[in-house]
Amino acid sequence: MTSLALHPGLILIAGAILLLPLRGVARSAVALAVPVAALYLAWHVPDGAVTSMRFLEFELTPLAGDKLSRLFAVIFAIMAFGGALFALNQKHPLELAAAAFYAGAAIGVTFAGDLITLFVFWELMAIGSTLVIWSAGTRPAYRASLRYMMIHLLGGVLLMAGIAGHVADTGSIAFQRLATDSVAHWLILAGFLLNAGAPPLSAWLPDAYPEASWSGTVFLSAFTTKAAVYVLLRGFPGTEILVYAGLFMVFYGIVYALLENDMRRILAYSIVNQVGFMVTGVGLGTEMALNGAASHAFTHIIYKALLLMSAGSVLLMTGKRKCTDLGGLFQSMPLTAWCGIIGALSISSFPLTSGFVSKSMISQAASDLYLLTVWLLLAAASAGVFLHAGIKFPWFVFFQKDSGLRPPDPPLNMRAAMLLFSALSIGLGIYPDPLYAMLPYPVDYVPYTGVHVVTQLQLLLFSGLGFFLLLDFLRRTLTITLDMDWFYRAFGRWLVRRVLHGMSVLGSEGERRLWRAASAAWRGLERHHGPEGVLARTWPTGSMALWVVVLLLAYLLLYYV
Amino acid sequence: MIAPHLPVLQVVLPLLAAPLMVVVRRGGFAWLLATAASVAALGIALALFARVADGAVLSYAMGSWPPPWGIEYRVDRVNAFLLVLVSSIATVVVIYSRTSVAAEVPREQLYLFYTMYALCLAGLLGITVTGDAFNLFVFLEISSLSTYVLIALGRDRRALVASYQYLIMGTIGATFFVIGVGLLYLMTGTLNLADMAQRLPQVAESRPVLAALAFITVGVCLKLALFPLHLWLPNAYAYAPSAVTALLAATATKVSVYVLLRFYFFVFGGTTVFIALPMAEILLLLSLAAMFIASTVAIFQDNLKRMFAYSSVAQIGYITLGVSFDSVTGLTGGVVHLFNHALTKGALFLLLGGVALRVGVVRFDNIGGIGRMMPVTAFGIVLGGLSLIGVPATVGFVSKWYLVLAALESGAWWLAFLIVLSSLLTVAYVWRFVEAAYFREPDPAVARLKEAPLAMLVPAWLLVGASVYFGLDTVLTVGGASQAAQDLLRGGR
Question: Which of A302, B93, B134, B208 has the greatest count of CB atoms below 10 A from its CB?
């Protein structure tokens, strides 16, 4: 049990509980110290099962390490630190604690040696992230968090059903490579993919993340989807369907991000897009591809957090989030703008940034496998990423027209967090060897060859040219883009009205009858189950006794027959 | 020297404490005595549990009259498990009731309350420990009669009606039970359960035995509130004093389930009655009805105590569902859920008692924003709710896990699906509490509330803690339950 006290995830969760009552300097100190402790512990988790405990008839291994789990745990801990530094002046008392809890659960997922532990941390992660969204404290955030939670409860049910089936089939709870050969495994895969933001339920991500507070989104961007990438890497490497799912996500993200006007929704769509690259890498399944997916998750956490920090600073200082309301902020917020640009260059895989050294491995893996279509699609998508996130975000927010806003750069701690992540992003881009050393498989990939650099620069320059040529078409208007979430938010209501309207063609009698049927069904439920319903009200004693007799008679009859 | 007499001391201590309280007529003294009796009962139960852990069966001949002529007390792994549960819950509740009951029951009636409490405890322990059918009936009546009084002590005037209805129903149930026992006595000539189990196979197909089975089933199911015989339960739980609700929810129905198990698997276990009759199917159907209908009703309730009372009916459905599988896994699930639900529901009703102390009747419209004013209580209720839903790391998960496994084992995928689906109904009513407690602005009335007193919070959180602890460490609960299940299924077959 002592080794459980040194579980890096549990340390963060314990820290979260400690953070709840704390305020002021003490809160800041704990919020920063706990992720550092978690980082130290995560770094030193040895290979293999560290601790085990009995649960039901199973041997749980809540803490088991290898290179892959350490890689994810380390970046999660770094992220928890950077995010906490950025969020220190967040007023809402719940958010820092919720974020630490969320990060702890994510680290717990990476070190889970068995499926039951995995499931527990998986659900804790859902709770933690929901709490982060709640702590924005607005009505839309509350409603978004409810939708978010429902989707993730559904994911949890799928995963649980899959795990139960897997245990019933094999009797083992070890979390190893799973083949897509049974219903149970498909259910597990579906549960994992739901968290990765894969189709058809990608929409929960851009629906919920932008509703969080200016600092909450930074945390949200890092953990849930990347933990999903981790479990896919461990459970389903080389599963073909992941290639298609990943490519779909890549383009889904690009298209919607190009149409979007809200700066943080743009970045949320680009999370789906970037996770799509990783899922494709997992699906390709070669050592190069898996390394690429893992390292891309690592670098993506850094630069996406950086981008969202930059956007969060803008939101905090201006209170505005729509591209059409912003612009020209470079003048008064130079540091935020520079950090945003570094993040934007990284996400576009510009040479000398972290994105370049990781994403190119996935494309390389596709070309090594002679998958021309996949390679072409990935290349096209890279250009698309530059369009929507690389240029569009900094251009519309910091340059373009002058919106007349003159806010200063954000407070010191936020600037420090942005500088830290900018430095990491560029540092890994220039000197990727420490990252490569942490990857699960040996790396024999050299990012900085003439061909790689020139190819990437050509791609980026031409898409950049395209952007400015087509600027008039891309200029955002005040629009709302419709996505899958619209189906469960508005389309359902519309459909009912349409169908009813269609019925009225047959005569308003039909419409009325349908309405009556629907409301009668609801009333029936309420009549039987409601407080005064036949099933709920207090019965006269005589009627109660009648039931007893009825049941006795039923039994006697059945026995005699 | 005391050791051989432990089985009888288990019952005699609380039974003797009761008249002593009436003689002294002091509330404080009565509480002390009730606490001492409960703690002693817990100690004895633990000692008995340890002594039968290896599968031994302790037989105690009352007054040295050897069984089957005299009354036999018989402790095996099945009822030792129950004894520990009942006496530990009773101990926690009695500690809690000092503050809670003082606020709900008039001072001059306090000693009567504790007298009835001790009698009720003696009755429940007696039902569990005895190996004699008629003695069982006597203890059933002792516990029932004292329960009627305890319910009637509730502040709400409707408590009287609820108690009256329970009295009528409980009496019908007990009558049915004794009719059944009478028929069995007629056919076998013995009242000793073990002896009866041996003699029954010879007369198993005779009609009086079948009628006896029907009478006992219906009588006991009334006491354990199996759907649709649960109608007495919601009002009894809702209007009884808080401590009584917790005691009843956590022990009374559970002991009745034990009686059902004892008769089904131990007494009738050696006969072929179950194979010939659709017992399992009927039980399965009624369990499913309880799980779905009672949960749906719970969603619509406005009074929280009533809501959790309906939830109890639903949870009893899970227990009987486990029984209906007629397999080791299923029975393990049923028995472990019996234990787990006792912890969870006990905790919930104790916490609700704290809220009731502050706001009076606990309705959804007068607890808005209570999460801010009574954070410890509200958080405990949420944890209890999570356990009802069956979230991992709570006891609820452990039981549901075994039930789902048992369903999969018997090849009934649809049943596993239904078990999971019914959890979603639980989510709905637990969510109503979360919504009211955390997402509504506190009313002026709520904003003045203080946290519940520590003397109530500590016992309540003891149970909350237990329902998390036993969700992680299942050696005691699942171990005990699976041994009990194996013993039950081996009984005579």
Answer: B93
ipTM score of the complex?
0.80
Q: What is the dihedral of CA B424, A108, B401, A169, to 10 degrees?
A: 110
Put simply, the chain B residues between 381 and 410 with a CB less than 8 A from any chain A CB are: 391-393, 398, 401-402, 404-405, 408-409
Residue A63 pairs in a beta bridge with A51
End-to-end CA distance of chain B: 36
Left if phi > 0, otherwise alpha if psi is -120 to 50, otherwise beta: which for A352?
left
The predicted structure's pLDDT at residue B336: 93
pTM attached to this predicted model: 0.77
Better-scored residue on pLDDT, A33 or B391: A33
Amino acid B493: pLDDT = 45
Distance in angstroms (rounded) separating the CA atoms of residues B335 and B320: 9
A216 neighbors A493 (Cβ within 8 angstroms)? no
How far is it, in rounded angstroms, from Cα A336 to Cα B37? Answer: 70
Gap between the Cα atoms of A361 and A382, Å rounded: 13
Phi, psi of A309 (to 5 degrees): -65, -45
φ/ψ (deg, to 5) at B192 = -70, 125
Minimal Cβ distance to A544: which of B161, B165, B299? B165
User: For residue A261, what are the contacts with CB-CB under 8 A and spacing of at least 6?
Assistant: A322, A323, A324, A476, A477, A478, A479, A480, A481
Residue A480 pLDDT level (bands cut at 50, 70, 90): low
Q: Give the tens place of pLDDT for each residue, B327-371.
A: 889 999 999 999 999 999 999 999 999 999 988 888 888 888 888
Given pLDDT bands bounded at 50, 70 and 90, which one contains residue A179?
Answer: confident
Residues from chain B contacting residue A160 (CB–CB below 8 Å): 420
Which among A328, A203, A303, A221 has a CA at the least distance from the CA of A264?
A: A221
Burial of A92 (0-12, 13-18, 19+ CB in 10 A): middle
DSSP string, A9-39: HHHHHHHHHHHTT--HHHHHHHHHHHHHHHH
Q: For residue B486, what is the DSSP state?
A: H
- Residue A159: is its pLDDT beyond 70? yes
Cα A269 to Cα A83, A209, A275: the distances in Å are 20, 10, 10
Which string of DSSP letters, residue by residue, matches B251-297? IIHHHHHHHHHIIIIIISTTSSHHHHS-HHHHHHHHHHHIIIIIHHH
Taking the mean position of all CA atoms in its chain, how far away is CA A272? 8
Model pLDDT, residue A1: 45
Q: How far apart are CA A459 and CA A451, in angstroms?
A: 12
Q: Which residues in chain A touch residue B173, judged by CB atoms under 8 angstroms apart?
A: 548
Write out pLDDT tens, residues A349-395.
888 899 888 888 888 888 888 888 888 888 888 888 888 788 888 88
Q: What is the pLDDT of residues A404-421, one digit of tens each?
A: 778 888 889 999 999 999
DSSP A387: I
B234-267 residue pLDDT tens: 999 999 999 999 999 999 999 999 999 999 888 8
Closest CA to A254 of A398, A391, A374: A391
Tokens representing residue A353 in the block:
């940034």
Query: How is chain B split into domains, by residue range?
Result: 1-277, 278-493
Gap between the Cα atoms of B266 and B449, Å rounded: 52
Q: How large is the angle between the packed helices A93-111 and A24-43, nearest 10 degrees? A: 10
Chain A touched by B416 (CB under 8 Å)? yes
Nearest to A531 among B277, B301, B420 (CB): B301
| A548, A549, A550: best to mutate for the B interface, most B CBs within 10 A | A548
Residues of chain A with C-beta less than 8 angstroms from the C-beta of B166: none
Which chain A residues have a beta carbon less than 8 Å from that of B260? none
